[in-house]
Write a structure and sequence with these properties.
This protein is mainly α and 162 residues long. The protein has a domain of 28 residues. It is built from five helices and no strands. The termini are far apart.
Length: 162
């Protein structure tokens, strides 16, 4: 009884039917497809370069594009660039660069001003650092003298102080 249930299981039977139908669809589309119609007609043994180049393996070309719009735009942009160049050549140099030259001059003045401020700050900082270093050196010298006196007292406790 179990064997019969396994053989006639509705899920297994459904899966076998789906596999059979899928194979049938693949077989019919491969055998009866339009691949035979896409082959070029004519002599298969001819070595005619005109037909080989014009048709090739497929009768259409993907590389043929209408580039007239892009060509027209490129030509227009070239004419405009040449016109701008010609217009700028006729102008004197200060007029060509007008605002840009003014901006560069202003920027240079501001940079020089900033460098001057930085130099003043550096001089102040150097003065403060030098004073701090001198104070630290004096304190270190006093500490060394006191430390030396303490060391002498420890090493020679019985000697009279002179």
């Amino acid at each position: 009884m179990q064997t019969l249930k396994r053989i006639f299981n509705p899920n297994a039977l459904r899966q076998w039917i789906v596999v059979f139908l899928a194979g049938l669809v693949v077989l019919t589309t491969t055998a009866c497809g339009t691949a035979q119609a896409a082959l070029p007609t004519g002599n298969s043994g001819s070595n005619n370069p005109a037909t080989a180049d014009s048709e090739g393996m497929y009768p259409h070309k993907d590389t043929d594009m209408d580039t007239s719009g892009a060509d027209a735009k490129a030509d227009r942009m070239i004419r405009q660039a040449e016109q701008r160049i010609q217009d700028n050549i006729d102008k004197p140099i200060p007029q060509r660069y007008g605002d840009a030259a003014k901006d560069v001059g202003q920027s240079a003045k501001e940079t020089a001003k900033d460098v001057g401020q930085s130099a003043k700050e550096a001089v102040k900082n150097i003065g403060k650092s030098t004073q701090r270093a001198a104070d630290n050196a004096g304190e270190n010298a006093r500490g060394m003298v006191n430390g030396a006196a303490d060391t002498v007292d420890r090493l020679a406790p019985n000697q009279p102080n002179s």
